[in-house]
């Protein structure tokens, strides 16, 4: 795995540069593998990973050979590229990366790290002759390296909220315009519930491109259990199914997935209701409202890396009826720290602030000041040099529910640490 890390590190200094020129050039050099794969293209601020996980699980249950490409990874690069829910073997990924590097012409601008791994994914899916690839947008949509297919079978926009404004633009309208950039002429679109400002932009694009559209509504909850290991049952379009991922947001995410496969059925795909139910029930998506243990203590882990995701976590935690929460949190410097704290912190809570290893971590003392300004009645607020002492103190200090959150990279570090 280290060889994959060190290989891809060589492309890190090219940064995130939203443009399609380099990826088209690279894919041309590789024989245009992206044109050999039928795709479902999924964009959105939050929910796109869960929707991709539902879709690939349903399509696998229906008997299809399914590729799935998502980002970021939690522990290692192989998580990003899956075939029938199995991570790509690292030896095969290494071979593909060498193949991609060989295709980079010295006189052409070097591709970015994301473009290199994206090209490897297209190559893998083409070589494996998948029936379908479920492809998640990395950042934005219009200029994202995944946006190279002129005729996806379906395009999906899960949600739009304020994130990555540094690259996508300062308003929801700008961000919506970038996400709507994945829509293609007369290609079916499935769209989740959007804020009015964003919906207006997406609607105009859909009209201009004459896309048949389904505006998905959240599924209805039929039964809900407070036990974290027994699954709620939901219904959408007359289909009753168990929802294995936690949080009320999964009612819209699962509905979007069902609406998407129903469009595929109109295109001749055979996806029986039994496959929809089984596929959803078997869906796994790491690091999103996931229960785990640490030193024999149950804890909840969740990315909650932007305001909308933090609101989902906050709502879920409050259904559990704990008197107060111990938050172990780390955040990147680029995130909207105040909004995340507002969504989560309540009087009496305890806050343990930690750095996000190997990333541009927010200044912990600044975070501490912001948190105590927003929630003046925190029971405790302390900064720690590493995650381990913070978790150990959180466990020793109280009987509170312990939640580790604030960054998917932090969760990846925790999962890796736990498995060592």
UniProtKB/TrEMBL annotation:
It catalyses: (6S)-5,6,7,8-tetrahydrofolyl-(gamma-L-Glu)(n) + L-glutamate + ATP = (6S)-5,6,7,8-tetrahydrofolyl-(gamma-L-Glu)(n+1) + ADP + phosphate + H(+). Residues 42-260 form the Mur ligase central domain. It comes from the Bacteria. Residues 287-407 form the Mur ligase C-terminal domain. GO terms for molecular function: ATP binding; dihydrofolate synthase activity; metal ion binding; tetrahydrofolylpolyglutamate synthase activity. Gene3D superfamilies: Mur ligase, C-terminal domain, Mur-like, catalytic domain. Belongs to the folylpolyglutamate synthase family. Keywords: ATP-binding, Ligase, Magnesium, Metal-binding, Nucleotide-binding. Its EC number is 6.3.2.17. Its cofactor is Mg(2+). GO terms for cellular component: cytoplasm. This is tetrahydrofolate synthase.
């Amino acid at each position: 795995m280290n060889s994959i890390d060190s290989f891809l590190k060589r492309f890190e200094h090219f940064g995130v540069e939203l443009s399609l020129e380099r990826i088209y050039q690279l894919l041309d050099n590789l024989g245009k593998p992206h044109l050999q794969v039928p795709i479902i293209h999924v964009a959105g601020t939050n929910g796109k990973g869960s929707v991709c996980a539902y879709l690939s699980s349903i399509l696998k249950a229906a008997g299809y050979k399914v590729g799935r490409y998502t980002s970021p990874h939690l522990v290692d690069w192989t998580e990003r590229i899956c075939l029938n829910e199995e991570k790509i073997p690292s030896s095969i990924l290494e071979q593909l990366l060498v193949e991609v590097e060989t295709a980079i012409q010295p006189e052409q601008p070097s591709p970015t790290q994301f473009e290199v791994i994206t090209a490897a994914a297209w190559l893998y899916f083409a070589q494996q002759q998948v029936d379908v690839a479920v492809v998640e947008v990395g950042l934005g949509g219009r200029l994202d390296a995944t946006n190279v297919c002129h005729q996806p079978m379906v395009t999906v926009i899960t949600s739009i909220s304020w994130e990555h404004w540094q690259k996508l633009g300062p308003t929801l309208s700008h961000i919506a315009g970038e996400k709507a950039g994945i829509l293609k002429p007369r290609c079916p679109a499935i769209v989740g519930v959007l804020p009015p400002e964003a919906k207006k932009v997406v609607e105009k694009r859909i009209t201009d491109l004459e896309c048949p559209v389904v505006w998905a509504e959240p599924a209805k909850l039929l039964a809900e259990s407070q036990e974290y290991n027994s699954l709620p049952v939901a219904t959408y379009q007359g289909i009753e199914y168990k929802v294995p991922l936690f949080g009320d947001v999964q009612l819209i995410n699962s509905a979007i997935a069902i609406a998407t496969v129903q469009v595929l059925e109109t295109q001749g795909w055979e996806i029986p209701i039994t496959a929809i139910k089984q596929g959803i029930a078997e869906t796994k998506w790491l690091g999103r409202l996931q229960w785990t243990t640490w030193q024999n203590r149950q804890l909840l882990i969740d990315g909650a890396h932007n305001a909308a995701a933090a609101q989902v976590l906050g709502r879920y935690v409050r259904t559990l009826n704990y008197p107060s929460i111990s938050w172990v949190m780390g955040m990147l410097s680029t995130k909207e720290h105040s909004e995340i704290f507002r969504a989560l912190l309540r009087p009496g809570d305890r806050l343990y602030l930690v750095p996000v290893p190997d990333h541009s971590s927010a200044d912990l003392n600044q975070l501490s000041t912001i948190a105590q300004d927003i929630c003046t009645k925190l029971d405790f607020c302390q900064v720690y040099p590493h995650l381990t002492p913070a978790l150990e103190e959180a466990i020793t200090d109280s009987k509170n529910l312990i939640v580790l959150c604030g960054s998917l990279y932090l969760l990846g570090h925790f999962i890796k640490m736990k498995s060592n």
